[in-house]
Design brief:
Radius of gyration: 23 Å
Structural class: alpha+beta
Number of strands: 5
Strand content: 5-15%
Shape: globular
Number of helices: 6
Length: 157
């Protein structure tokens, strides 16, 4: 009888450990991986993706107020075609591989089949959004659009 109890206990332990291992594998996506997956999925759906990193998250600062107002205003019109994400460690690791300084604020624009634009800060000038949108929409660029286009980088998402 003791042998039977030991075998049942071992069976239960085996099932429990199998369940734990299987659960760990099913949830192996870290939040970092989920962001990269979400960005990739948005791009595959034809959306333009904006990824930003803002070091000054002081919501009482003028920079934060301007940045937030301009981004929100732009997104009111473009919510169906744009997705916005806050960068994380996994995204920064990808940027670091192409020698982009991830220790400071930045904004990246990604769209399938189009150049990737890198702006070295958060955007506090609405013309940057308009210039990139005009470029991605294949609209004729004005001299002002050209002046506000960020740098093109070689970034593969």
């Amino acid at each position: 009888m003791t042998q039977l109890k030991n075998n049942l206990s071992l069976s239960k332990l085996f099932i429990f450990l199998t369940f734990i291992i299987a659960s760990g594998c099913a949830n192996s996506d870290t939040p970092s991986d989920k962001l990269l997956s979400s960005i990739d999925e948005s791009i595959k759906q034809g959306k333009t993706v904006i990824v930003y990193q803002m070091n000054n998250m002081d919501k009482t600062s003028e920079q934060y107020a301007d940045w937030s107002a301009y981004l929100n205003s732009f997104m009111e019109e473009k919510a169906n075609t744009y997705k916005v994400y806050s960068a994380n460690k996994a995204f920064n690791t990808k940027l670091s591989k192409i020698k982009i300084d991830t220790g400071s604020s930045y904004t990246i624009f990604l769209k399938q089949g189009k150049p990737t634009y890198y702006y070295d800060d958060v955007i506090v000038e609405p013309m940057v959004y308009i210039a990139v949108d005009n470029q991605y929409s294949a609209k004729k660029l004005s001299a002002m659009d050209t002046a506000f286009l960020p740098d093109v980088i070689n970034f593969q998402e």
